[in-house]
């Protein structure tokens, strides 16, 4: 049976990357040992570490002005680390609240400093992205925080909003490198690797170089971005295997035509599933309103919970894994990250059409 992995994260990885990792597992770069057994100070690991930053920048088309840091503690640690470093006592940070992860980022910032809510879609069960006109920024915010893709609700910013020159801090955990983005709008971008970039355990941070000096000085060493920048992300022992996997995934993205290639592929895949929802005569109801739909997480409901249970049981029996919606919203969520194949979404769409015809 072919298995299709629709898990939200940790999630599907490119099969060729897994094969390469398997081949190299017992003997990395001719060393006779595994990359997991190699010192993070070895020249072999340092080469990987440097290649990650180089590939990351190459994919974004930037040469200078930014650093790529490989940290630990997940995106959740970034929720605190960002305001600890960049939300001074006399400043305000603006937060756009579009889901549970954005709420968590806001909550952490509120523990540390003054927060202004520029928009909040909670009243609409986070089924949409706010319009530009809805965004009410404060006078002179230190930064504007947003979540580019809301993993749980299946909504995604279609374009990055205008902030009148105020640097954006973005949680891109669930859509990083699924499409191109213009780095110059961002002071800092962060993502847990476990959806589009690799296994869990590595958190990738893209940070503007002039922000490294701006960070608060009274912050503990490990929680300062400048510590990691100065030490090339080798201040302490990094999650070496995760960094190695991240490097292979970045190489794979380059082979797919870079971010533009990924975007085209992801649009094709998402359209297949959304068309199936839209052509089901109301049998499937998408959670996200049409103009806020995510290309990464497709969320929908069936006419009742009985049918949802049956749908999830039958898809699982057919090898389609990870489809139950997040525990907070229920229903179905198909996570179709970069590494998901067209065949995978076609298998799902075909099952959906048959199921609707039978039970609709
Ligand atoms: N932000 C987003 C958008 C997420 O999807 C997740 C995890 N699902 C997180 C943050 C939390 O990430 P982590 O578990 O790496 O702390």
Automatic annotation (TrEMBL):
Pathway: Cofactor biosynthesis; pyridoxine 5'-phosphate biosynthesis; pyridoxine 5'-phosphate from D-erythrose 4-phosphate: step 3/5; Amino-acid biosynthesis; L-serine biosynthesis; L-serine from 3-phospho-D-glycerate: step 2/3. Its EC number is 2.6.1.52. Keywords: Amino-acid biosynthesis, Aminotransferase, Cytoplasm, Pyridoxal phosphate, Pyridoxine biosynthesis, Serine biosynthesis, Transferase. The keyword Amino-acid biosynthesis applies. Its main location: cytoplasm. The modification N6-(pyridoxal phosphate)lysine is found at residue 195. Pyridoxal 5'-phosphate binds at residues 75-76, 101, 151, 171, 194, 236-237. One of its GO terms (biological process) is pyridoxine biosynthetic process. One of its GO terms (molecular function) is O-phospho-L-serine:2-oxoglutarate aminotransferase activity. It is found in: Cytoplasm. Its cofactor is pyridoxal 5'-phosphate. Residues 3-348 form the Aminotransferase class V domain. InterPro entries: Aminotrans_V_dom, Aminotrans_V_PyrdxlP_BS, Pser_aminoTfrase, PyrdxlP-dep_Trfase, PyrdxlP-dep_Trfase_major, PyrdxlP-dep_Trfase_small. Binds 1 pyridoxal phosphate per subunit. One of its GO terms (cellular component) is cytoplasm. L-glutamate binds at residue 41. It is an enzyme of class 2 (transferase). Catalyzes the reversible conversion of 3-phosphohydroxypyruvate to phosphoserine and of 3-hydroxy-2-oxo-4-phosphonooxybutanoate to phosphohydroxythreonine. Homodimer. PANTHER family: PHOSPHOSERINE AMINOTRANSFERASE. Belongs to the class-V pyridoxal-phosphate-dependent aminotransferase family. SerC subfamily. This is Phosphoserine aminotransferase. It comes from Herpetosiphon geysericola.
